[in-house]
Amino acid sequence: MSTPASAQDRIAAWKQKWNESTFLKAQGLEVEETGVGRVTVRLPQVQPSQLGGGGTDNELNSGVLNGGVISYMFDGALGWAIMSALMDLPEAKEINPSDLRQFTINLDITFLDAAIGSRFEAHGRIVRVSKSTAFAEGDFVDANGKVCATAKGIWRIFWPRNKLAAAS
Questions:
Q1: Per-residue pLDDT tens digits for 46-82
Q2: How does pLDDT run across 95-115, given as a tens digit for each residue?
Q3: How many domains, in total, are found in the chain?
């Protein structure tokens, strides 16, 4: 695979890879970059398997989205916002987006209200990005814009070794 030339091309290549993930497809998630370092992950239609959980009585609260789904959407939204910002850095110009790796060090979620409904969005945005660590935050909203949860997290960045040495 050749290295995409512009930041937008690199971001588009990463988005294609992200959207091809089997797990993401199985969850019915969609991603939209709303600006460099800003991303929305959508769940356009909640599935019955995504409802309820350990803290809910399924008969009484069957319309409550499972916290694990919310957590996964936050992990994707914040991580994708970080990747979007990284792809815009000058150091990323010479690399293939598939060669840049990241993983979640910490994801802190505060659940503010029950997530009840059929459509949700997780918004992720960059707080700070360096060559080795990134910080992001976000909010999780229902179809009416009610904030059901907030998150903040820290990610570790792994640049391709030969490219990082050249960029330093």
A1: 888 888 865 555 555 567 898 899 999 999 999 989 9
A2: 777 788 899 999 999 999 999
A3: 1
Both tokens of 70, joined, read 């919310």
Residue at 1 is within a domain:
no
In contact, 151 and 73? CB cutoff 8 Å: no
Q: Residue 28 sits in a domain of what CATH number?
A: 3.10.129.10
pTM of the model: 0.82
3-state secondary structure the chain: CCCCCCHHHHHHHHHHHHHCCHHHHHHCCEEEEEECCEEEEEECCCCHHHECCCCCCCCCCCCEECHHHHHHHHHHHHHHHHHHHHHCCHHHHHCCHHHCEEEEEEEEEEECCCCECCCEEEEEEEEEECCCEEEEEEEEEECCCCEEEEEEEEEEEECCHHHHHHHC
